[in-house]
Amino acid sequence: MANVTRYMKEREQFKYTMLAQSSLQIQLSGTTGLNNQIYNFPLTVDITVPPDWQSVIIRQGAKTDTVNTTTSGSTTYIRTKIIPDGTTITLNKKANVTAWALTGSVTYDNATVSKIKNVSVAISGSNGYNAVVTTDTSGNFSVSGLAAGTYSVSLTKSDGFSSVNATDALIVLRYFAGLVQFDSLQTLSGDVNNDAVINSTDALQIIRRFVGNINSFARPDWIFMPQTINVNLTQNTNLTIKSIITGDVNKSYMP
Q1: Interhelix angle 166-176/200-210, nearest 10 degrees
Q2: Measured distance CA(43)–CA(27) in Å, rounded
Q3: Distance of alpha carbon 162 from alpha carbon 247, whole angstroms
Q4: How far apart are CA 60 and CA 41, in angstroms?
Q5: Which is more confidently placed, 169 or 46?
Q6: CA 19 to CA 34: how far, in whole Å?
Q7: Same fold, 2-93 and 99-245
Q8: Pair type for strands 149-156 and 228-233
Q9: Confidence band for 184, pLDDT divided at 50, 70 and 90
């Protein structure tokens, strides 16, 4: 009964003073004004914190604890034990770890906007995360459970080369002569030797591959736009990526 009586008296006399407060930290002190040699029981108290705090790290002296917040009406608070007339009590907002999803679709830049399967999608994060996923039959990919941060996304595809023929070579020559215009993907596709210039050499390379004299170009068989994507992931994010086969400047490929 004596302990209960002392605890109740501490509760009645307890007051706390806010020393400092920010969006990430609160510092306060508590006192009863009583004789600490007699009234020294830890008190259970509720402390109001900002509404966006989900978990709080509490420090008083050498003691550290982590508790989750509780919300009642419009008030968010924690319930913890503190020692009155002890050292300063420091509350720190614990970083809220939220998982996001990164999804995307890969389509061909043709009249039917065909979905492209079997595209290898490499995802790497500044936090050390690395994964490789493959687009499904609908041209889609998805990665979930990613922490907020910066991620790099790059795409490659090794199969499915087709639809590059003499017609494409003729169109490349017409472009070189100034008779037709190319969009950005066609410009990359027409530069099969990857020298940043589209001319008769590229047309010749297309013919040579069409007749079987060579089996590859200097540029990879598949072009994606954008080729590499940097994503600052702070929410669920969906990417739309276009593709074209190198040399298929008339966009005739139909998977």
Answers
A1: 180
A2: 17
A3: 9
A4: 14
A5: 169
A6: 21
A7: yes
A8: antiparallel
A9: very high
The full length of the chain comes to: 255
What would the CATH number be for the domain defined by 2-93?
Answer: 2.60.40
Give the pLDDT confidence of 71-84 residue by residue, as tens digits. 988 899 999 888 87
Amino acid at 102: L
Name the nearest CA neighbour of 14 among 32, 29, 28.
Answer: 32
Give the pTM.
0.64
Domain ranges of the chain: 2-93, 99-245
Look up residue 252 and give its two tokens.
């005739």
Query: CA 243 to CA 251: how far, in whole Å?
Result: 10
Distance CA 231, CA 152 (A): 6
Side chain identity at 21, as an amino acid letter?
Answer: Q
Average pLDDT, the chain: 90
Q: How many CB atoms lie within 10 A of CB 39?
A: 18
Token pair listed for 116: 């492209």
Q: Which helix (H) or strand (E) holds 184?
A: helix 184-190
Which among 151, 154, 99 is positioned nearest to 127, based on CA atoms? 151
Element (H, E) at 168: helix 166-176
C-alpha to C-alpha distance for 202 and 189, rounded to whole angstroms: 10
Q: Residues 153-180: pLDDT tens digits?
A: 999 999 999 999 999 999 999 999 999 9
- CATH of 99-245, picked from 3.30.300.30, 1.25.40.10, 3.40.50.1370, 2.60.40.10, is 2.60.40.10
